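Hi support team,

I submitted a single chain yesterday and got back a structure, but I'm not sure I'm reading the token output correctly. Could someone confirm the output below corresponds to the sequence I sent? I've pasted both exactly as they appear in my results page.

Thanks,
R.
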Amino acid sequence: MNPLLDLGARPVIAHRGASGLAPENTMPAFQLAAEQGADAFELDVQLTADGAPVVLHDDTLDRTTDRAGPVGRLTLADLRSADAGARFTPDGGPSFPFRGTGARVPTLGEVLWAFPRMPLLVEIKHPSAQEAVRRVLTQEDAVGRCVVAAADPAALALFREPPFACTASGPEISQLYWAAMLRRRPPRPRYRVLSVPERHRGLLVPTRRFITVARELGCPVHVWTVNDPAAARRHWGRGLAGIVTNYPGAVRNARDSRVLSP
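Hi R., thanks for writing in. Yes, this is the structure output for that exact sequence:
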């Protein structure tokens, strides 16, 4: 079973790859995460001007590459020239170890090809990308190992029915949270997984009650982004399923080397 859908699993999910140690959403980050024993990758998808689904979090190239401007105005060929390792610095500025090393913005298909057995949590940033994502997942025979996520419910319209699996959207997370907190009957879910922030507006989202209600609905809860191994153990002790982290090696070691406690 896909560990992202398994109520009994505690997957360590590499957030944009091992993005604390390598440039986010790049092949070096995904390769490092795999080497550190990540159980799944989380990644983000944007659409280029010519309709290619590429793995990039932001709407623009400014923060993570040596180029600037909206990704939606560039073709895939244009994007190939961007150095996706140019701005990554592990020490706040003195060094840029991946600059000029060939790290590029990959396509979704390239990540699927390179890691043919790795489960993926695929976040669609805009509804316009969902048709391209669906096409690539189907063509690459990757539907069974991927869960599609989006904050905007409109971006999940094509993934609500089998064989696809999707997470709850932002409004659906909020709806379940308040149903759990107020002890009301939750709505019947149109999703199979909850991927939630650790906190929202100062409130802990994956409370013990929230996790219990979600599990009663058959939905595992994954939390992002947790980089402290001790915090990860506390979440697991409350019954949480997956930890989305920038440091999959450290969090996996914490999971595997110590007995979980509440």
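A quick pointer for reading it: The chain has eight helices and ten strands. Let us know if anything else looks off.

Best,
Support desk
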